[in-house]
Amino acid sequence: MKQAIPHRFPIGIDPDDIDFMGHVNNASYLKWVQAAVLDHWRALAPADAIARHLWVALKHEITYRKPAFLEDDVIATVIVEKVQGARACYETVIRRGEEVLAEVKSSWCCVDAETMRPSRIARDVIQRFFFPAPESE
């Protein structure tokens, strides 16, 4: 089984992210996950695939572990778990240092940028998101 290439995405916390309780509002995590997943796509996919495809979120399941605050240094680590047809499943872990703030499972649909219809991702594009298979001896 191939191992996914993790993608680290630094998160900037804005004053608008802070809620009435003084920590990051839960809705901001969705914004961060979307930005992190799309950045992962742009970092690893070839330019022609990026130009031809868009991603639409289908589902997010968030487990909140600890609150984040305005001055925190926060990183989202994104890993694609599975790509099948036009769908991709991602895991995103949001951390402050070693502390896990939130874990997010999300599923996405790839759509053709022109027709806005679901679009399968080519196998050679998918392979860019995983470490190369070890050569057999």
Automatic annotation (TrEMBL):
UniProt cross-references to SUPFAM superfamilies, sorted A to Z: Thioesterase/thiol ester dehydrase-isomerase
GO molecular function, one term: fatty acyl-CoA hydrolase activity
Keyword line: Hydrolase
Family that this chain belongs to: Belongs to the 4-hydroxybenzoyl-CoA thioesterase family.
Protein name: Thioesterase
Source organism (scientific name): Novosphingobium malaysiense
